[in-house]
Each structure stands twice: as structure tokens, then as C-alpha cells.
Design goal:
The structure holds 2 protein chains of 2 kinds. Chain A is mainly alpha-helical. Chain A has a single domain, classed as Globin-like (Orthogonal Bundle), CATH 1.10.490. Chain A is 62% helix and 0% strand. Chain A is built from 9 helices and no strands. In chain A, helix 1 packs across helix 2 and helix 7 crosses helix 9. Chain A is globular and about 35 Å long. Chain A starts with a helix and ends with a helix. By secondary structure, chain B is an alpha/beta fold. Chain B folds into 2 domains: 253 residues, Thiamin diphosphate (ThDP)-binding fold, Pyr/PP domains (Rossmann fold); 33 residues, no CATH class. Chain B is 33% helix and 17% strand. Chain B contains 10 helices and 10 strands. In chain B, the strands form 2 sheets. Chain B has an 8-stranded mixed sheet with strand order 2-1-3-4-8-7-10-9, sandwiched between helices. Chain B has a two-stranded antiparallel ribbon with strand order 5-6. The N and C termini of chain B lie far apart (49 Å). The chains are: A mainly alpha, B alpha/beta. The interface between A and B is medium-sized, with 34 and 34 residues.
């Protein structure tokens, strides 16, 4: 599949307002996956995604950090949300968008997982899920 | 066979109010693991914090906790250590609490060398108060209180600690919790003041220093075989590195320096807590008078 088509699918699934927002979600999920997947699963996934996306599946360390959990995984995606963390217009007031950023990040992550799963055979999906941290595996399987 | 405590022993039931994906989660996890790995039980630990997102941490752990007013955890922790040196005293607070409001206490603790471990959750911003620039915010950083970009240069906590005489200085990254847990354990085993500055992305208010920003820059000092953490000059050079490459690991460690409480004459006959415990166990009224005279 071409990268542009991959992004289009994610955008339609997630009702993203722009291609930039869609790509930010895709990139953040891929980079988070690169932090947690063991080498074999990472290579298997790399072989199934568009070449432009492969670059985000690179990890600097040889092995994933065993303490990398669902909170850290989510952190990568929340960081990509352009709906939160902008300058607080209320100058110190309650930022409701930030309060729900976790839910929105999980929703966006699900759209990316869904598009990724379509690139994988059921057995590959199960293998990949088994290598994900607790809770993240559920997000992946239920996407 | 060496047994190890279950980190879940330190879990608390308090509802966590950190933002989803906050780097503080990794710090909490690493601290629990460091304590479990050292077989330290919950009642043997006191976590002292200040005010801020990260300062909520003692509430999320099944240990003794003390939340002080803004910037004051270090003197409170020092006092607790003097009263009961058997306690493992850990300070956890943010960069604003440590280096801004509590900046003087930070410098004095470095030179005083109490046997406490100081974990700074350094996200380069005031998160709890909705995103104002902090002492470690980089110059030019745009926030609600620096709409045209921060004017000041960022404080370099590692260089300040080194200049002030700290005997253990380390830097960790919340995106790499396992080495962070190891650093916390080594800091706790160090006799004296141990600073562990943790680079911790604020996913809501700091859109610059993200997990990815750090991932591209951090490197492990252990990869440099020639690096010697006891070399103060080398540590000074490493403490200057930022932006392009950011070193992680133990920058400086000076062993054999006496801790503050080792030099307090009033503690030579035992700590106040141990003396009181002894009196409770073996009440002898003739002991009360000299003890009262000593402390009054």
C-alpha cells in the first residue's frame, strides 16, 4: 500500500480534520511501537508498512526497555495532539481539552492500529499484540 | 537465594490525577522498582515533596509521605533524616519546586551533604499551574508567562550541583525507566546527597521537549568507556552538554565524604528517634533528665 493511501484510511477512520493531524497520529504511534517491540516483531511490521513509514519504526537502543508501559506509550501519542498543550487561552483557567487528551489519544491510536492491522495477517496481529505492553495489547486487539 | 520484594507492595489506592502519558508515571514505576530491588519495605521509606504535579507522587505510593509547602522539601527531609537516620529519605519534586522556589535549599543541600536522595522531575515547565516557564525552560521558550519567549538562560542544575559540592549527580530520562530505576537505587546506596535530575516530558504544556525530542538527543555515559564519574573536571564538561547531545547516567560520584548527620555531635549517642524508642522499650526515669538537658 502507498503511504498516501494508508494516511487516507486512517484519516477517514478517525475523522481527522487535516492530513497533518493524521500524519502526526500515525508517526507517534509508529515511534511508540518502535520503543516497545522486540527486534523480530519490529522487522515484521516494518516489512508490511509503506516505505515512508518504516523510518519511524527505528529504535536507537538494541532492546526495548522492559519497564516501558501503557502510560509511556500513551505519552508519545498525547504529545502529538495539536488540540492540547497550546498556549492556554484562559491564562490559568481550567483546560478541559487537556483533561480529555488521554481519551482522544486512545481514540486516535485505535484508528492507526486499525489501519496497521489491515496490513497484517491474523497470526501476525496476534504475535504483535503478544509483544505489546499490558493494556496496549488490548487497545491493539480491539481496534 | 536472594529474594526481592514485589513492587506492587508500594501501590496505593489513591486516584491518580496526572495527565495521560505524563512522564511522572515512569518515575513512579522506577522508584517502586528501585525500592523493591533493594528489599526496602514501605515503612522504611519517607518521601518528601513540595507543590506541583510531580509532588503528588508520595500520595500514589504506599510509603510514609510528607508534602511540604512550595520549595521546602529538602530542609524537611534533612530534618527527618537527622531525627531518624535509619529511614530512607527521598525527596521528589519538580524543577520549579527544586531549582526555583527551593533554589537556595538545593544549593545548601549540595554542600551540606545529608544522606538523602533527591529525584527532580524536570519537565522544564510549571505544569500544575497550567504552563508557565520554569528555571530550566530553554531561552526563547514560549509559555503563558513568556509570550515572546523566555528571556533568561536556562538554569543548569547539574553544573550548579557540581559547583555547590554535591557528591552524587546523575541524569535520567523518563522514556527509559529501567536505567532510571538503576540510577535511583545507586543514588540511594550513595552515602550523602544524591541528585537524580529526570528529564520528564510534560505532554500537555511542553510541546518542545517531547519524548521524541529527547530520544534523538540522549546518550548513555556508560557507552563512553573512558568516562570516569570520579573526575570532577570531566563531569563539569559533561554537565555543559545540551541541545545537540544530552548525557544520561552518573555524571559525578565522590565516595568517602562524610554525610551531614555523621558530623552532628548531638547524634553521637544515637538519633532522637532511636533514643526515644529505647526509652519506650526500657523505661528508666533516670535517663530522662540528661536527655532533656541535652535537647532543651
Amino acid at each position: 500500500m502507498e503511504y498516501a493511501q494508508f494516511l487516507r484510511e486512517v484519516r477517514e477512520d478517525g475523522c481527522f480534520v487535516s492530513s497533518e493531524e493524521t500524519e502526526a497520529a500515525v508517526v507517534s504511534v509508529l515511534m511508540a511501537l518502535a520503543q516497545v517491540l522486540p527486534g523480530p516483531q519490529l522487522r515484521a511490521l516494518s516489512s508490511r508498512v509503506p516505505p515512508e513509514a518504516m523510518v519511524y519504526l527505528r529504535r536507537t537502543s538494541s532492546e526495548p526497555d522492559p519497564l516501558f508501559d501503557s502510560h509511556l506509550f500513551l505519552g508519545w501519542v498525547v504529545s502529538s495532539l495539536d488540540a492540547t498543550g497550546m498556549r492556554d487561552k484562559t491564562t490559568g483557567g481550567l483546560d478541559l481539552t487537556a483533561a480529555y487528551s488521554g481519551d482522544e489519544a486512545i481514540r486516535r491510536m485505535g484508528c492507526v492500529f486499525s489501519a496497521l492491522k489491515r496490513q497484517l495477517e491474523p497470526a501476525q496481529q496476534r504475535e504483535l499484540a503478544a509483544a505489546l505492553p499490558e493494556v496496549v495489547d488490548g487497545w491493539f486487539l480491539n481496534a | 537465594m536472594v529474594t526481592r520484594l514485589d513492587p506492587k507492595l508500594f501501590d496505593a489506592t489513591t486516584e491518580n490525577t496526572w495527565c495521560a502519558g505524563c512522564g511522572d508515571f515512569a518515575i513512579l514505576k522506577a522508584l517502586k522498582l528501585a525500592l523493591a530491588d533493594q528489599n526496602i519495605e514501605p515503612h522504611q521509606v519517607l518521601a518528601v515533596s513540595g507543590i506541583g504535579c510531580g509532588s503528588k507522587l508520595p500520595d500514589y505510593m504506599n510509603i510514609n509521605g510528607y508534602m511540604t509547602i512550595h520549595g521546602r522539601p529538602l530542609p524537611v527531609a534533612t530534618a527527618a533524616k537527622l531525627a531518624n537516620p535509619d529511614l530512607h529519605v527521598i525527596v521528589v519534586n519538580g524543577d520549579g519546586d527544586s531549582y526555583g522556589i527551593g533554589g537556595n535549599h538545593f544549593v545548601q543541600s549540595c554542600r551540606r551533604n545529608p544522606n538523602i536522595t533527591h529525584i527532580v522531575e524536570n519537565n522544564q515547565i510549571y505544569g500544575l499551574t497550567k504552563g508557565q516557564y520554569s528555571p530550566t525552560s530553554d531561552k526563547g521558550f514560549v509559555t503563558t508567562t513568556s509570550p515572546d519567549g523566555s528571556i533568561e538562560l536556562a538554569l543548569n542544575p547539574l553544573a550548579v550541583a557540581l559547583a555547590a559540592g554535591a557528591t552524587f549527580i546523575a541524569r535520567a530520562f523518563a522514556g527509559q525507566p529501567k536505567p532510571m530505576a538503576q540510577m535511583i537505587a545507586e543514588g540511594m546506596q550513595h552515602r550523602g546527597y544524591a541528585l537524580i535530575d529526570v528529564l520528564q516530558p510534560c505532554v500537555t504544556f511542553n510541546r518542545v521537549n517531547t519524548y521524541d525530542w529527547y530520544r534523538k538527543r540522549v546518550y548513555d555515559l556508560q557507552e563512553e568507556e573512558s568516562y570516569d564519574p570520579s573526575d570532577r573536571e570531566a563531569a563539569w564538561q559533561k554537565a555543559q552538554e545540551w541541545e545537540e547531545r544530552i548525557p544520561l547516567g552518573i555524571l559525578y560520584r565522590a565516595e568517602g565524604m562524610p554525610a551531614y548527620e555523621d558530623q552532628v555531635k548531638a547524634l553521637e549517642g544515637g538519633s532522637p528517634v532511636s533514643r526515644l524508642t529505647e526509652l519506650v522499650r526500657n523505661p528508666r526515669p533516670e535517663q530522662y533528665e540528661p536527655l532533656k538537658e541535652e535537647f532543651l
